[in-house]
Amino acid sequence: MPVQTNLALAQALSPDLNITVVTNAPDIAVLLINHPAAEVIMLGGQIQKSTGGAVGQTAINQIQGILFDQAFIGGCAMSPEAGLTGFNYADCEFKKVAMAQSNQVIVGLTADKIPAVARFSVAKCHEISTLVVEEKLDKELLEAFEAEEMTLITV
Known about the structure:
Domain DeoR-like transcriptional repressor C-terminal sensor: 5-134
Strand content: 25-35%
Organism: Enterobacter agglomerans
Shape: globular
Protein name: HTH-type transcriptional repressor glcR
Keywords: Repressor
Pfam families: DeoRC
Number of helices: 5
């Protein structure tokens, strides 16, 4: 399985951060169970091996009962024109529901996923609050994303 941006984010959480994490990814739940100030809610259902997360109606029903301050969404590909896209239909549908339940959508992607377009749409750029990308991304691409009215953070 490829490196998960959200797993890296979970690993970077400060031990002092008081947070509730809702995840469909068992590896993230297992990692954060030892975080001293995190409440962890694990969504259930069928675990899809290709994405490493629970997807399908069980997970969707559970997430529809939760309102989020922020949703951290990963993706397979993104371009200024197509927005965030993915290769797995069920995973993309889950992400759409998670985004609908959130006040702020934050997408983190590695530079190798930009610019690219995958098979299934997750969100247009204007539906994403913040895009976190590697600093080495081409300047023209960074400017194109900024023109889409999202906050851009380079790391």
